[in-house]
UniProtKB/TrEMBL annotation:
UniProt domain Saccharopine dehydrogenase-like C-terminal: residue ranges: 160-406
Molecular function terms, GO-annotated: carboxynorspermidine dehydrogenase activity
Manganese as UniProt keyword: no
Pfam families given in the database record: Sacchrp_dh_C (PF16653), Sacchrp_dh_NADP (PF03435)
Residue ranges constituting the Saccharopine dehydrogenase NADP binding domain according to the UniProt record: 5-156
EC number: 1.5.1.43
Protein's name in the database: Carboxynorspermidine synthase
PANTHER family in the record: CARBOXYNORSPERMIDINE SYNTHASE
Superkingdom classification of source: Bacteria
Enzyme class: oxidoreductase
Length: 426
């Protein structure tokens, strides 16, 4: 029924691809294209005997829009699923426009070289205007809206778990549970244990940059910025138990503030153990999280990329990770004149995921929604010209698909609410 071009063949991609292959009625043909073609071939070899989906592979440098456009013209997909890195978002969007294909991703654009003076000037202006200093924001991709409209193409941004499922939960809560949503607390809990003193569950470069940056939240129409890990809380997660969590900046706050009318406050919290935080602080203090190239023995190296080479490959954590994730949103607001609160969440078991797709739950909880978002677009359920975040579409078919494809969700009425304090007052 449809042809999907998947760009990237890392942790998230391998889950998204396997899920597409479980859903052969929708994804009759896919092409896996990435920088290292051997990885695409290896995955194809592993799964092709288990699926009716016809799989092809190709090598592509997604930093090169013309090369991606040429591949789109040759393969003629209905849509392109970008599960490479956020650095490639704009080149892949350009290629989709040039060659005529819908676009889907899981993370908003981030510049690879944050020292680039042209990028830096735009970034500094944005920091002043908007009031948050994260290196990533939606302005770059939202600026493509007119172009996608003119081309009659759909761009669906951020269909991972967070952003992605958490944003669909927000649209669903607004549609079925509230007349007005006042606050949203997004909680991302990983209760898994991989047994290493330090490792990241997805791409270390993206993960460490996100976590070591300033935190921020949205309140009364503006951003409030915090120091990194300044605010802490402890939450008793259903099926996982009590975990420390910290307030972070996160990209869906920006789109939900725009798309959930009247919302007064949006915060994002992620759980971290003490060992992770101590290692990260130490690596940051010695400069290992820097993206600025340094000379070493006559060779130029980027510290965070070198660190990535030393750390365990996130894809290798699958067999050794045990425990569960619990990710969801606590909403407060009003329905029929009465105040109410609910928690919508999913619990995912690392070992169950590994048994099914040979990945831990972090890649699983991103890869499944990447497939579902692609399905919404290629089946025409979520298709209109322009650039959209997931909460702008009808949440019902997506919520149904979550239950069907491995990420069932629950609604808890009147949940424990989040109490926050300064981490240094602990
Ligand atoms: P990985 O590093 O495991 O995989 C990235 C893949 O992209 C690799 O196969 C890599 O190739 C390929 N790639 C990188 N650069 C290029 C390029 N220039 N051209 C072609 N291919 C390229 O990352 P993850 O799978 O962990 O993450 C994938 C995406 O998912 C990221 O954008 C990440 O931010 C996002 N994400 C979103 C989440 C959400 O909930 N919304 C949660 C987690 C991740 P090679 O194999 O050669 O290195």
């Amino acid at each position: 029924m449809s042809r999907l071009l998947v760009i990237g063949c890392g942790g998230v991609a391998s889950v998204a691809i396997r899920k597409c292959c479980q859903n052969s009625d929708v994804f009759t043909e896919i092409m896996i294209a990435s920088r290292t073609k051997e990885k695409c071939d290896a995955l194809k070899e592993k799964i092709e005997s288990t699926t009716k989906t016809k799989i092809e592979t190709a090598k592509v440098d997604a930093d090169n829009a013309a090369e991606v456009a040429e591949l789109i013209r040759a393969y003629k997909p209905d849509a392109v699923l970008n599960v490479a890195l956020p650095y490639q978002d704009l080149t892949i969007m350009d290629a989709c426009l040039e060659a005529g294909a819908d676009y889907i991703d899981t993370a908003n654009y981030e510049a690879e070289d944050t020292e680039d003076p042209t990028w830096r000037a735009i970034y500094e202006k944005r920091c002043k205007e908007k009031g948050f200093t994260a290196y990533f924001d939606y302005s770059w991709q939202w600026a493509y809206d007119e172009k996608f409209k003119e081309a009659g193409l759909t761009a669906l941004l951020g269909t991972g778990f967070d952003p992605g499922v958490t944003s669909v939960f927000s649209a669903y809560a607004l549609k079925h549970y509230f007349d007005e949503i006042h606050t949203i607390d997004i909680l991302d809990c990983n209760g898994g244990d991989h047994g290493y003193p330090f490792a990241t569950n997805f791409n270390p470069e993206i993960n460490l940059r996100e976590v070591s940056a300033n935190g921020s939240y949205w309140e009364d129409g503006h951003w409030v910025e915090t120091e990194p890990m300044e605010f802490k809380s402890v939450y008793d997660f259903p099926e996982v138990g009590k975990k420390d969590m910290y307030l972070l900046h996160h990209e869906e706050i920006e789109s939900l503030a725009k798309n959930i009318p009247g919302v007064q406050r949006i915060r994002f919290f992620m759980t971290f153990g003490q060992s992770y935080l101590t290692h990260m602080k130490c690596l940051e203090n010695v400069g290992m999280l820097s993206t600025a190239p340094v000379e070493f023995n006559g060779q130029e190296i980027v510290p965070i990329q070198f660190l990535k080479a030393l750390l365990p490959d996130p894809a290798s954590l699958g067999p050794r990770t045990v425990g569960k994730t619990n990710i969801g949103c606590i909403f407060t607001g009003v329905k029929d004149g009465k105040e109410k609160s609910i928690y919508i969440y999913n619990v995912c078991d690392h070992q169950e995921c590994y048994k099914e797709v040979e990945s831990q739950a972090i890649s699983y909880t991103t890869g499944v929604p990447a497939m579902i978002g692609s399905m919404m677009v290629v089946t025409g359920q979520w298709k209109k010209p322009g650039v959209f975040n997931v909460e702008e579409f009808d949440p019902d078919p997506y919520m149904e698909a979550l239950n069907k494809w491995g990420l069932p969700w629950k609604v808890c009425e009147d949940p424990e609410l989040v109490k926050v304090w300064k981490a240094n007052e602990d």
